[in-house]
Automatic annotation (TrEMBL):
This is PLP-dependent aminotransferase family protein. Residues 1-69 form the HTH gntR-type domain. It comes from Zoogloea dura. It comes from the Bacteria. In the C-terminal section; belongs to the class-I pyridoxal-phosphate-dependent aminotransferase family. GO terms for molecular function: DNA binding; DNA-binding transcription factor activity; pyridoxal phosphate binding; transaminase activity.
Length: 471
């Protein structure tokens, strides 16, 4: 990374952590040169980068100042209100039609579900993978069958412990990505025709998994900042034969919502009283912008009803397809499901990731990744505020890499998706996040890619297209 980018990222961190506050004056170019022993052009480049990200502003003859917090111009969306009865799912064909249209690398990936692959230490991971393949113990092809590589599961157990949860390696099952983990959890506790509770809106892959397994869903209202409504969930548990809850509690896809720690404890206790397992899709937990991570659900799970599903795909190793389930009381059932479904997860990749975690450096990578995503969020929010029409509502997350926008009612998200795609830009239209294809005037934008001129111009274009349709 160049020197000016390093300076910009460090200044951005101070702004995002509140050390530098809105209205504060940044040190002058001359002062910064003296402090860091760098050239004026380097400081100027760093300040221009911060300005382009929407974090600071230049004032004539006064210098550079921290901008007022972004995301305040638009109000946040309100609590969703899905219809409270169960739904049989017929969504996969519709979702695949949308997703097939955004695979072209020439398309600006505002509608993608993945962050930029250039955010990750793929060269270093590649060296670990090459070493693992060269020195593979033939016995590992047997010993690393489910539940998986011993050292990788031990390293994961240590990370749980660092976050306040006591999770034995024995209850961790290594999977081929989080999606396999979610499917295994659903298969372990449901049968075709059963009913599961999901939040609304929800990640479309969960809808696809439920449809594939012949499950019905009941959609629970959620708030774009604080997540699923506990009152509505309790009502559903009282009046419907819910067999499991499939929820995202940390930086949910698509809204970015995070369930506060106190309400998370109440949620786990509520499900415990009703003897209903929680399948937690938690692939974004490491991408928190605040200094402290969210409270882990396994830390408040005394009875083992939480099946915690995560992976390295969003925070370290996209394409390696390594996930896991901290399965609690369901570990044996999920291990058997894994054996019957896909037998094993690729052994050299497990060994490579275990070696990477053991040698350290993961937390340094995560700190840099979080700063980068927070800075990119600020830049995209600034572009949204500048170019989207009046009446827009914006959910402003404090982690992950998604923005959820509620547009004026007259804007058709599917038509906006088509119009943007015609100009080489993808967006994720709201209906793919609902069993009933609701949220027809909402879109999800991805800020997990560099906030360069190409991406910010694309945000501006989508805003103008939305404004034209909102008249």
């Amino acid at each position: 990374m160049s020197l000016y980018q390093t300076l910009a990222d460090e200044t951005a961190r101070l702004i995002l952590e509140g050390v530098l506050r809105p209205g504060d004056r940044l040190p002058s170019v001359r002062q910064t040169c003296r402090r860091h022993g760098i050239a004026p052009v380097t400081v100027t480049q760093a300040y221009h980068l911060l300005e382009s990200r929407g974090l600071i502003e230049a004032r004539p003859k006064s210098g550079y100042f921290v901008r007022a917090r972004l995301g305040q111009r638009w109000p946040e969306p309100e609590m969703t209100r899905p219809v409270g009865h169960s739904t049989e799912l017929v969504v996969s064909d519709f979702i695949f039609q949308i997703l097939d249209s955004v695979k072209d690398p020439a398309v600006v990936p505002l509608g993608s579900s993945f962050p930029s692959p250039y955010l990750f230490p793929l060269d270093k991971l590649g060296r670990h993978l090459a070493a693992a393949a060269r020195h593979l113990d033939p016995l590992a092809t047997v010993t690393d069958l489910p539940p998986g590589n011993d050292e990788l599961r031990r390293q994961l157990s240590l990370r749980y412990l660092a976050n306040g949860a006591s999770v034995s390696p024995a209850e961790i099952v290594i999977t081929s990505g989080a999606m396999e983990g979610l499917n295994l959890c659903l298969q372990a506790v449901t049968r075709p025709g059963d009913l599961i509770a999901i939040e609304s809106p929800t990640f479309y892959a969960g809808l696809q998994a439920a449809e594939r397994l012949g499950l019905k869903v009941i959609e629970i209202p959620s708030h774009p900042r604080e997540g699923v409504s506990l009152a509505a969930l309790e009502d559903a548990l009282r009046h419907h034969p819910v067999k499991a809850c499939l929820l995202m509690l940390n930086f949910a896809n698509p809204t970015g919502a995070r369930v506060p720690d106190a309400r998370r404890k109440e949620l786990v206790a509520l499900l415990d009283r009703h003897d209903v397992p929680l399948i937690e899709d938690d692939v974004y937990a490491e991408l928190h912008f605040a200094a402290d991570p969210p409270l882990g659900s396994k830390a408040v799970d005394p009875t083992g009803r939480v099946m915690h599903v995560s992976s390295f795909s969003k925070c370290l190793a996209p394409g390696y397809r390594i996930g896991w389930v901290a399965a609690g009381r369901y570990a044996a059932a999920i291990q058997r499901q894994k054996l019957s479904l896909s037998l094993a997860t690729t052994v050299p990749v497990q060994i490579a990731l275990a070696d990477y975690l053991k040698q350290g450096g993961y937390d340094n990578h995560l700190r840099h990744l979080r700063r980068t995503l927070a800075s990119q969020e600020a830049a995209v929010v600034a572009a949204v505020e500048a170019h989207f029409p009046e009446g827009t509502r914006l959910a402003r997350p404090d982690g992950g890499y998604f923005l959820w926008l509620e547009l004026p009612r007259q804007v058709d998200a599917l038509a906006l998706h088509s119009a943007a795609l015609a100009q080489g830009i993808s967006v994720a239209p709201g209906p793919i996040f609902s069993a009933k294809r609701e949220f027809g005037h909402c879109i999800r934008l991805n800020f997990g890619h560099p906030a360069d001129a190409r991406l910010l111009d694309a945000v501006a274009t989508v805003g103008r297209l939305a404004a034209a349709r909102g008249r």
